[in-house]
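This part of the workshop introduces the protein records we will be handling. A record pairs a protein's sequence with a compact description of its fold. Backbone structure tokens are a discrete shorthand for how the chain folds in space. The question running through the whole workshop is how a given chain folds. The record below serves as our worked example for the rest of this section.
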Amino acid sequence: MASSDQTSIPNRAETLRVLRMMGDYAPILMLGSDGDDVGTRWLLHGHPIQPAIARYLMRLQFVEDSGHTEFGARTLALTPRGIRFREDGVAWWSGLSWFQKLWVTVFG
């Protein structure tokens, strides 16, 4: 989150919220497939994840396929790189003022 390429992170506050919700053990469920082995819908704890965020995490290898559920959904768990990205994001967020947090939350 503190990299020089921050603008490429889709909705930084929401992306960090997804990473925090995942913790070390909660996988993202990827439902369906569009032919490129990329899902059409993603869920975390039953809540939908924005497609741009899910694709971003997959594209940069912050999450990886960790198996299938008994209903055929693929599970995506954090990689070691994803864990470092989350830790960097939490540190970045804690260094922001309340106004900066509001700005990032509203404007991405």
Residues 3-7 have pLDDT under 50 and may be disordered. The first helix runs from residue 12 to 22. DSSP finds four helices and five strands in the chain.
